[in-house]
Amino acid sequence: MSDFHQNGVITDFHNLTRRPVEALEADLVKFSRRRPMGLILPSLFSELEGPALSGIIDELTKVPYLSEIVVGLDRADREQFLHAREFFSRLPQHTRILWNDGPRLRELDEELDSHGLGALEPGKGRNVWYCSGYVLASGRTSVVGLHDCDILTYERGMLARLLYPIAHPRFSYRFCKGYYPRIAEGKFNGRVARLLVTPLLRALKIVCGPLPYLDYLDSFRYPLSGEFAMRSDVLEGIRIPADWGLEIGVLSELQRNYSHRQICQVDIADTYDHKHQPVSQDDPGSGLNRMSLDISKALYRKLATQGVSFSSEDFRTLKATYYRLALDLIEAYDHDATMNGLSLDRHSEEQAVELFAGNLLEAGNLFLDNPRERPFIPSWDRVQAAVPDILTRMHEAVELDNRGEV
């Protein structure tokens, strides 16, 4: 059973009573009359053929309170897009698929590029950004949730708990982050959160001194979770990172734009399992190797905007501080796993920490060597200022694609 402590600077919604999903959904149906709700599903076409997404869709067909589901479809040709339309057609909600590789959206993408406003690279960040634009264009919802399409343990109570704090008409929260334990098949998972983010935040507090931003990030129980909900208008003003720093970048944008009292987190699951990224020890362009680089750069960039200056010596000190803290945490995780009858491979954990420690230095060098780097996709506020009718044309393009018009 979850504890009931409020230890950080943001409100924590616990799962204290295992309230039935039917009771949560009955409330959400009432809330939806005042705050209509939607869901964004960023997906690769390959996930339609994977083990998780069909089960997720089966669960979503039972959800009675959603006004809209927006699917961002990446890496799909025309035949695959048509297959996706059939795949998602069993959803009873108003459902639209953004065919991100189709000619209509590619044409809009090229126009934005000509203004210097396009997404920098394909990936989840770009997918979420375009889906956010469509949600704004559609205007069907005032609350929108987002979760990944590879959740093997998905059940619709996750979505109900995720949306509840934002949808409740008496609550004033603008953003909610989901959290859960990353345990599956009798072992600890979530290596990047456990072995990189937590000890890195603690090391940054030591090296850079106490900062409200670090206390804020450290308040999240699982800052890298891909599940969050927000008021739809929040999507207009935030900049979304194009790389693996998406989750940290979104949290940073929320901290810049809103009071901590408007941000919360919620316990959405007792167990959670999804597709695991490989470490990719020898390939800095993929897997946890790439992820650790992008997350580290995202943190350095944010701290620089708050007046923290870094040098090569600072990054060496940070690496040493991080490394000691991370090794201490491995021991704590090992003991916790033993008491709970779980397994933990200390050798592979320490190998991951060694990789992450090296990447702290590499990310620091990349940060120092590329002062002109533009890591964020521009906010939709800025895009609309440059191209006022872009959302209207995006909405029209998506409608034409979903009607099957050539």
Task: Outline the fold blueprint.
Elements: E1 11-13, H1 21-32, E2 37-44, H2 53-60, E3 66-74, H3 78-88, E4 94-99, H4 103-114, H5 124-138, E5 143-146, H6 157-167, E6 175-179, E7 183-184, E8 187-188, H7 191-208, H8 212-218, E9 228-231, H9 234-237, E10 240-241, H10 246-257, E11 263-267, H11 287-305, H12 312-339, H13 346-369, E12 376-377, H14 380-386, H15 390-403
Parallel strand pairs: 1-11, 2-3, 2-5, 3-4, 6-11
Antiparallel strand pairs: 5-9, 6-9, 7-8, 10-12
Helix pairs in contact: 1-6, 5-15, 7-8, 7-12, 10-11, 11-13, 12-13
H/E series: EHEHEHEHHEHEEEHHEHEHEHHHEHH
Low-confidence regions = none
Strand content: 5-15%
Main CATH class:
Alpha Beta
Please estimate the helix content: 40-55%
The radius of gyration over CA amounts to: 21 Å
Count of alpha and pi helical runs: 15
CATH topology: Spore Coat Polysaccharide Biosynthesis Protein SpsA, Chain A
* Count of folded domains: 1
**How are strands sequenced across the largest beta sheet?**
1-11-6-9-5-2-3-4
Relevant CATH superfamily: Spore Coat Polysaccharide Biosynthesis Protein SpsA, Chain A
Throw out a few tags for this protein:
single chain; 406 residues; alpha/beta; Spore Coat Polysaccharide Biosynthesis Protein SpsA, Chain A; two-stranded antiparallel sheet; 12 strands
How would you describe what is shown here?
The chain has an 8-stranded mixed sheet with strand order 1-11-6-9-5-2-3-4, with helices on both faces. The chain has a two-stranded antiparallel sheet with strand order 7-8. It is of the alpha/beta class and 406 residues long. The longest helix is centred in the last third of the chain and has 28 residues, at 312-339. It is globular. Helix content is 50%, strand content 13%. It is built from 15 helices and 12 strands. α2 (53-60) links the parallel β2 and β3. The chain has helices at 21-32, 53-60, 78-88, 103-114, 124-138, 157-167, 191-208, 212-218, 234-237, 246-257, 287-305, 312-339, 346-369, 380-386, 390-403, and strands at 11-13, 37-44, 66-74, 94-99, 143-146, 175-179, 183-184, 187-188, 228-231, 240-241, 263-267, 376-377. The protein has a single domain, classed as Spore Coat Polysaccharide Biosynthesis Protein SpsA, Chain A (Alpha-Beta Complex), CATH 3.90.550.10.
